[in-house]
Specification:
mainly alpha; 81% helix
Length: 141
């Protein structure tokens, strides 16, 4: 029971952060425009990032797809954290590192969700690659 409650809290935390930041991406808030301009992908990178984060948050909130949403969100957040470390800096326009911290929080939360579902994800990956191998060899129909 404790695991289920912890997992639910992790899901709500990561999805909540992802959904909350969408407002800034889709309304063209100055911080978002600055970030994506600095990365050289404004505005389409901002829109694509927002759409992908919306998809990840939705998948995280649906019990049967939460592991896949966590994988997607983890990948997005690794990119965000690395962008902060190597290009943008930790603090953006005087935010004191808030956006960096939120990215780390989502990445850590999603890694815990992934760890909780590791057996399910492993089985899926094995099944996927067996099917892919069959398709490549012409055995699957």
């Amino acid at each position: 029971m404790k695991h289920r409650v912890a997992l639910l809290l992790l899901r709500l935390l990561s999805a909540g952060i992802l959904l909350q930041t969408l407002y800034f991406k889709f309304t063209g808030a100055p911080e978002s425009v600055f970030i994506f301009s600095s990365l050289g992908v404004e505005p389409w990178g901002r829109y694509l990032s927002g759409i992908t984060e919306l998809l990840a948050a939705t998948l995280i909130l649906i019990p049967s797809t939460q592991a896949f949403g966590a994988l997607l969100a983890f990948g997005i957040m690794v990119g965000a954290v690395l962008s902060h470390i190597f290009i943008l800096g930790i603090a953006i326009q005087g935010d004191g590192g808030l956006l960096f911290g939120l990215g780390l929080c989502v990445a850590i939360s999603c890694s815990a969700i992934i760890a909780f579902h590791r057996d399910e994800l492993t089985k899926f990956a094995q099944s996927f690659f067996v099917t892919l191998k069959g398709v490549q060899s012409g055995k699957a129909k």
